[in-house]
């Protein structure tokens, strides 16, 4: 069975790749129009290539930095933006899986402890129903620490936010709020 694995980044690919290779012929698919700024996009893509070279992970790249599409499509509300972002990336993965005759698709988003796991699962199942390509669900979060450890041992770049401008902004806003709580005027 051939599975196309949407790959958001190298560190999040380590554990799912390991587990999926027990049952599938796994190929990665790097498509992430949400990553901002462009330099971050390039770092993540280059790190996926580095991981691919070091581990023998075959990865396909839809190398389109289409941040304009992301900003035109995704509203500012957190709930909607994540749902739309997950849908855009998983739809593209399912289309590529269909085009290349893969039996199923999945995503490394199911590895991250920071993603809305049930939302990802629901979107994957809906896309599967719409396209006829099976969405393979598995909760990879159990391997979070193992993936972190291996990515550090491999010296891979580890990003500090999901990728979109909104998540980067939230990260810095939280840090600023934390720093300002102890400040007295």
Automatic annotation (TrEMBL):
Entry's family note: Belongs to the QueH family.
Role, per record: Catalyzes the conversion of epoxyqueuosine (oQ) to queuosine (Q), which is a hypermodified base found in the wobble positions of tRNA(Asp), tRNA(Asn), tRNA(His) and tRNA(Tyr).
Disulfide bonding pattern of the chain: 162-164
Species of provenance: Candidatus Schekmanbacteria bacterium GWA2_38_11
Domain of life: Bacteria
Keywords for the protein's UniProt record, in alphabetical order: 4Fe-4S, Disulfide bond, Iron, Iron-sulfur, Metal-binding, Oxidoreductase, Queuosine biosynthesis, Redox-active center, tRNA processing
GO terms, molecular function: 4 iron, 4 sulfur cluster binding; epoxyqueuosine reductase activity; metal ion binding
Protein's recorded name: Epoxyqueuosine reductase QueH
Organismal lineage: Bacteria, Candidatus Schekmaniibacteriota
Biological process according to GO: tRNA queuosine(34) biosynthetic process
Gene expressing this chain: queH
InterPro entries xref list: QueH
EC number(s) stated in the UniProt entry for this protein: 1.17.99.6
Coiled coil: none
Catalytic EC class: oxidoreductase
Biological or metabolic pathway of the protein: tRNA modification; tRNA-queuosine biosynthesis
Binding positions ([4Fe-4S] cluster): 8-9, 82, 85
Catalytic activity: epoxyqueuosine(34) in tRNA + AH2 = queuosine(34) in tRNA + A + H2O
């Amino acid at each position: 069975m051939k599975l196309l694995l949407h790959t958001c980044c190298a560190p999040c690919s380590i554990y799912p790749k390991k587990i999926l290779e027990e049952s599938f012929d796994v190929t990665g698919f790097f498509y992430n129009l949400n990553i901002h700024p462009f330099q971050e996009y390039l770092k993540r893509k280059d790190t996926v290539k580095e991981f691919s070279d070091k581990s023998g992970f075959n990865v396909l790249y839809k190398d389109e930095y289409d941040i304009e599409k992301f900003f035109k499509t995704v509203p500012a509300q957190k709930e909607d933006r994540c749902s739309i972002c997950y849908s855009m990336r998983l739809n593209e993965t399912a289309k590529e899986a269909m085009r290349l005759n893969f039996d199923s698709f999945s995503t490394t988003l199911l590895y991250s402890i920071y993603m809305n796991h049930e939302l990802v699962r629901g979107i994957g199942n809906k896309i599967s129903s719409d396209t006829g390509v099976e969405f393979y669900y598995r909760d990879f979060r159990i391997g979070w620490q193992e993936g972190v450890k291996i990515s550090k041992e491999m010296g891979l770049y580890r990003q500090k936010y999901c990728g979109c401008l909104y998540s980067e902004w939230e990260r810095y806003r939280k840090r600023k709020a934390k720093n300002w709580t102890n400040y007295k005027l």
